[in-house]
Every structure is written in structure tokens, then in C-alpha cells.
Amino acid sequence: MGCTLMRPEMKKTAILIVSDSEHGVGLEISVALTGRTDIELMYATDRAEIARLYVAHEFAVVLFDTTARGVDAGGIDEWIRIFQTQPATPIIFMTTSQEEALRLCRQTTSEFIDYIVLPFSPKFLQDKLQVYLQLHQLEKTVTLLADELDARKLELEVVYQELAETYEKQETFSALDGLTGLFNRHYFDENMQKEWRQATRNKKPLSLLFIDVDYLREFNRSYGRGEGDNCLCALAGVIHLGLLRPVDIVARYGGDQFAVILPDTDSHGAMLVAERMLENVRALLIDHSTSPVAGHVTISVGGATVLPSAKGKKFHLIGEAEKALAEAKAAGRNCIRHNSYKVP
Q1: pLDDT tens-digit profile of 138-170?
Q2: Of 4-8, 241-245, 270-274, where does the model show the most confidence?
Q3: What is the DSSP string of 56-91?
Q4: Within a domain: residue 127?
Q5: What is the pTM of this model?
Q6: Residues 298/214, Cβ–Cβ less than 8 Å
Q7: Range of the domain at 199
Q8: What is the model's pLDDT at position 8?
Q9: For residue 164, how many other CB atoms are within 10 A of its CB?
Q10: Closest CA to 129 of 24, 15, 50, 12
Q11: Which residues contact 133 (CB under 8 A, 6 or more apart)?
Q12: Residue 24: its pLDDT value, please?
């Protein structure tokens, strides 16, 4: 027997955008959300105005554009004091680098912190915001139903289940890179630590690959940044296809770099995966007329394999993989170099 959920009266949901509505990222956000009659976008870059809006409105989410004119991301403490007045309001930092995003996330104490590394696709922004808007609506619904708990237990259970599923979606989106759809650096860092501990417990080898796109800067200069983004997306797809098992993880590690975690994989297995990825990229035959290596886009791969122990640290494995990547570049790029070592 079905039941009808009593939801709050529908009205426009407010989103605060710390940016300029007529330029840059702020304008891109406005264009991406054109046609959404269920939301109200409020733009501001002045801290006093934002503080006033925070008191007057309940926001479903805050989009904080650190590149906007008039926004001083360096004075983050001032912004934090404003945001802490509504600690349950999610904040999505929009930055030009993953390192800046992670730094801002660490300094902010709001309950929900997320970030998008620029540039972003409109579809990714729409999907991510939809999750937060749904969370906002469901939280209001939960509050309403909790007030009528004795009479509405069944409805409340249904909504809690829906809320749990939405939280899971939110966690998934928070783990993804906005451009390529791969896992992001934050997800890589967390899982690298987890896989190291598991490999130490199980006494199994752990392998790591670093992949660098050869001469991507020159590609962007020749073909434009948009084509460079398209190139990264295409490479992300075929690199992911090079994985052999569901437990293997590929993430966008930086601007032109990817990282692959291969649990329970020895050096031979890691080389097989690296070779598959190298050939997959070559097979794309993406034109790159200014590359000194080839007439098409190529990658360099550096890998490392270790049998972890309690004495070792994950940073040793990362360092060995980075060293192997440097060796691949020094050898002319478009190749693989791999290091195996033992923890003393």
C-alpha cells in the first residue's frame, strides 16, 4: 500500500553565488542554469552584502568563485566567519587548481564542503547542484515529518531512505573530477592510504602508475584550451579502459597527469596495465603537430611496485613512481619506466 509524502510548499530555492553575474565563471553559471524556474540565483562579491543575504535567506548551496573580481580568496578567515552563521549550508569552492581547493576545504568548518576545479562542463555543474538541491528539499521534508512522527512513521522511513541514497550520490559527485569524470585527487589520496594499509595487512604487492600527457601545453597553444580539455576527456576514457579489474583505481592527479592504483599487483602486472594504456592512447591518433615525439598525442608512464610493511610509508611508493615518470620523460617520452623496491 503506497503513501503520499507531505512536502513543504514549493517555492524557489535560493542559491548564493559569490561571483559577478556578468563576467567569467559567474556568467558561465548563469548560462548553465538558464531555464531553471525553481531556483533563485543571488550574486554578490561584497562581504557585507553577503553577510546581509546570509541573515535574510536560507540558501540551499553556496557557489564560491575564487577567481571573481573583488573576491579575496586569501582572506578566507573573513569568509569563514560569514559561512559559520549557517554551518549546515553546503559550500562549493570553484578554483583554478586542486591544491587551492583542498586548502580552502581544510580551512572551512561547514558541514558540507565540496569543490569544482575550473573549467567545468555545464552538465557536471547541473548534476552536482541537483544533488544539493534535492538534499536541501529532503532535509526540509525530514524536518516537517519529524514534527508529526507519531502519525507519519511510515512516510518518515521512506524519506530517510531517499535521503540516504541522495547522500550517497553527493559523496560520489564529491569524489569526481569535473572535467574528465574520473576520480579526483582527494579521492586518490584517501584510497592510496587505505590500499597501503590493506596491502600491509595482507602482505600483498601494491603498484602505482603516474601518467603524464606529453607536451599538453604545446597542444593547448596550437589547438586551443577547449580542444585541450576534449583531449584530456578522450585520454581519460581510454586510460580507464586499460584497467583490468573493478578494484583498480584511476584518478586525475593534476592538470595533465593521471594516477592509477593497482592493489595486489606485482611489477609484471603493472607493466601490462601500463602497456595497455600506452597503446590505447596511441590508437586514438589525436593530432599533435607540435609534439617533438610524434604527430599525435602520446603519454609517458612511470610506475613503481612495493611489498608494503609497517616500516614503510605510502610516500615512498609515490616518490618511486614519480622518479620512474621522470626517467620516462628523460628517455624521450611516449614510453614506460618502472621501479620495484623493497622496504628496508
Answers
A1: 888 888 777 777 676 777 677 778 887 887 777
A2: 270-274
A3: H--EEEEEEETTSTT--GGGHHHHHHHHTTSTTS-E
A4: yes
A5: 0.63
A6: yes
A7: 185-342
A8: 47
A9: 10
A10: 15
A11: 13, 39, 60, 61
A12: 84
